[in-house]
Amino acid sequence: METQSVLIVDDEPDIRELLDITVSRMGLKTHSAATLAEARDLVARVQPDLCLTDMRLPDGNGISLVQYIQREFPHIPVAMITAHGSVETAISALKAGAFDFISKPVELDNLRRLISSALQLQTDTSRAKDAMDEGLIGDAAAIQTLREQVSRLARSQAPVHIHGESGSGKEVVARLIHNNGPRSTGAFVAVNCGAIPPELMESELFGHIKGSFTGASQDKIGLFQAASGGTLFLDEVADLPLAMQVKLLRAIQEKTVRPVGASEEQQTDIRLLSATHKDLAGEVEVGRFRQDLYYRINVIDVKVPSLRDRLEDVPALTKTILTRIGIEHGAVNSHLDDSAVNALNNYAFPGNVRELENILERALALSDGGTISADDLQLPSILHKSSIPSNEEKHKDSVKAQQQHDAHGDLEGYLENIEREIIREALEASRWNKTAAAKLLGISFRSLRYKQKKLGLDS
Q: Is the peptide bond before 105 cis (omega within 30 degrees of 0)?
């Protein structure tokens, strides 16, 4: 097997020599360049398996080299060497397409880990493409764009923030990024930030040592350490309390955590992915989310489309889901009749793909002989696709509401009225069984209870 090679780009001879020795001792071949022009020439001639570049070069900067390689040789990962504490530079490099970054003074153990991780990337992306096709089903333009974006992000270590409505598939996207990247052999640790009591959050994320608080009967590793070498996925990150946001920011920037009760910090090695159904920028504006943390976790932004914005994908999704749950329930020949197909084609799916799964699983249990009819689907009549606006319609309605609001309400009240009506209809359709209504809407029982109270539907 041909020896893999690394291109080292730095105008300081001492740094080049240090990196050359470190890389050579890993059994890798090295090439060196002192300028941007030399680096471009070497990339084109030898096409190394990895490029390590300094930010400041005599005839330009490292980010332009990242952009050049991304454009001409996208299979070559590039890692940026940045000044210590230069968060803005690191984020700029990641946005430009850098695989990862490392700060000066270079810690050799961290450098070796970075190199090993980068060299695990596959130059043949066909396997990843197949995984994207299986994980993100459909031919809608939004899904095709999402597949391409996820495929690129799997080859990076950049923090990614995934946003979209509840049930749209944010965790599916996060798992695809993890499973098709160099950390796929490591753990994928998912945590719902809204489900952890605030008083336990620090212990859950960072761990604790025995005796650090009442009930701490033994040492416990936190989720950061549990995800070491892999990916930590913070779902509903907008629900983090402000005090915890400060500690999370430090953990991300310093790549260290301090377990509760410990006197020393511990190194961490994770890729951070996060998600929320909320408008995180809006949360920043109203002071519920720290701006500095927002910029740190939102280096790359991924939008997962709602199902009602890609209704043309419902048949393909339905077929895939029915096949899977049919195997699980021993009903491999289950199918929809014409009435069920028509009902689904005219439904709005407020709970997105998760709701479609729940609808089909319930319908399969109710159907006779594996043929599913519209009656088996039990869809609330009001929740047809015209009752929940598309993104374009929502924008038009928002503008109209802003223009026509009066003393009885504003835009927020207008949108709350829509949400209130949808939730009321779901509750009535489920005969006010909250668990069933939550499943129908594709949200958690806790979220439904919160929304009921907020919208005055809890009486």
A: yes
